[in-house]
Amino acid sequence: MDSGSGLRTERFRAALSPVESGSADERTVAWLQSVALGFHEPRYESKHVSALVEAYDADGRWLTGVYDDAAPVHAWNPAAPVATYATMTHELNTGGSLLPAHQITSVSVRPTHRRRGILRHMITSDLRRAKDEGFAVAALGASEAVIYGRFGFGVATSEVAVQVDARGRLELTVPPSGTTVLADLAQLESLAPEIFRRHLERHRGALGRQIGYAKRAAGLWGDLPEPEKDIRAAVHYDPSGTPDGYVTYKFLPWETEPHTLKVLDLVAVDDAARLELWRYLGSIDLVERITHSAAPDADPLPWALADRRRYAVKSHGDLLWLRPLDPAAMLRARGFEADGAVVLGIADPLDLASGRWLVQVDAGTATVTGLETDETPPSGVPVVEAGAAAFGSLYLGSVSAQVLAAAGGIRGSGADIEALGRLFDVARAPYCSTHF
Ligand SMILES: CC(C)(COP(=O)(O)OP(=O)(O)OC[C@H]1O[C@@H](n2cnc3c(N)ncnc32)[C@H](O)[C@@H]1OP(=O)(O)O)[C@@H](O)C(=O)NCCC(=O)NCCS
To answer: Which pTM was predicted?
Structure first.
């Protein structure tokens, strides 16, 4: 942090110890233990730490720690950071292309150091760096909804937690297609990322995944980075014999009433594969209830069930938050489902993405031209202004311009907001199933 605060900031890559083979270096261990503390997880054992270092390295994560060198004698590990923050990069499907997103994760500040501006310092300097490095968009998942709007992040995708009554067989109205097999878990370490890649390329809102997903799919990791023995998986093949979906799940302890099967991860290249995986799940004996906490907003399942009341939405929550760094690049990367033109201004509290652009969409692709502040917009083109967070929410199309305008995030005349809505509306809500 700034000189005078008494705090020191370091940014580094997770690393193994140079002296003790197979263990993490002390700085990395201390950083990971601080994250565990921040999120109320148990302390990591050294085998967990080395597994995480390997995975973080493969993810290309950068770790930031803020250190208080004036810790008194009874303080827990004076070498551990009082605040943590990490970043990595994966591609985001914008409906038109795959755009590298600057992802922020592992944000924690020790209770004794809260509300002194440590998060503000970490996030503003990081976003500035990401912009300088050429990222168009930053992304995160928030543990609390009140923290990140002030930094220009808006909710861009949601997911639903569903509960399906599975007593008897789950009858679907769509004809079966392809085949589903109980999978050899070990093979999912390489197959799951292949299937996810195809899902990513086809679904607006999908975001590339960190390596932990493949490890969990293969049962090599559970909640902790160590083998989990009760994970099962199934793979679906399309009619030509190509794998196009997988599901991992576990049966909750027998004492759970009704007997419940919990879906851990379900990735499908298309709707047919998604529904076939559900058909498989619904055919498992001794299961009375199936839960999935990360289903899409636009889920075909209830519409394909013979008895749609078997499908209950238990909760609906925000998942991906986006923040513009280079709005013009975001707009050029986006796939539009309607053509038209609009002058879009962005007001940014951190002044990273402020400006005004003429956006002309033709055949689904935008041509974006910067306008000077005092430049008169071309006549007849709708003119609107969005806050950075509202633009983050509008971008993937999960919420309409009209709704954002009603909530105060976008300003313009009624007709101009409607025109913006027509340009940004998408036929199907975006779906992100990547938690980070
Ligand atoms: C959330 C957390 C990281 C905030 O860190 P911090 O260093 O105390 O935050 P700052 O002092 O930099 O505060 C930045 C701003 O956010 C606000 N803020 C921070 N946390 C907030 C919260 N939980 N609720 C409401 N406002 C919050 C501050 O009031 C401040 O506002 P201002 O600058 O507009 O006056 C910290 O409380 C924490 O570690 N919480 C537990 C873990 C967690 O929730 N992490 C987020 C993971 S996504």
So the answer is: 0.96
